[in-house]
TrEMBL record:
InterPro entries found in the cross-reference section: DUF6106
Native source organism of the sequence: Candidatus Avimonoglobus intestinipullorum
Keywords: Membrane, Transmembrane, Transmembrane helix
UniProt name for this protein: Uncharacterized protein
Transmembrane parts of this sequence: 18-39, 45-63
Top-level taxon: Bacteria
Pfam families cross-referenced by the UniProt entry: DUF6106
Amino acid sequence: MDIFYEYIVKRKMDTKDYLFIAGIVLLALLLTFIFTFTIVAQYLFGMWLLLDAAAWWGAVFLIRQRNLEFEYILTNNELDIDKIMARQRRKRLLTINFKEIEVCARTHDVMFKHQLERTEGLTVIDAAGNPEEENVYFVDFSADGARKRVLFQPNEKIIEALKKVNPRAVNV
């Protein structure tokens, strides 16, 4: 029997995102001021309006790119994790074969705290909506000769299906 589940989680914006947005808005305001009221405006001969519009279009584009969602697609024993930016562009982050993982457990599980703290030689990929929540899991595995760790936030259906795929490595 084939297994297929998908789940989308929206990334919560943090302080770094809000500072980025404030910086972009300030930069757009500065460019608008430069293009409109300085001596540069005299040499642009009316192009200042077009440059102002381009500065604000760029600001809106960059701000919208901070709107991230992660989609988890479980097909049989493979979990695909996609990053969706601004609800328009999709990028495949990685595919994990759950028959070949080392461990999958909650980040707040006391039994796996020691393993979670070991990060030397690991590439960590954060694909969780809010890493501070209780339902965040980590997966350690090897791919392309490198050790990797993925933080993700699946629903209960995906966790139960993963447990059936590899009951020894998936700890609920």
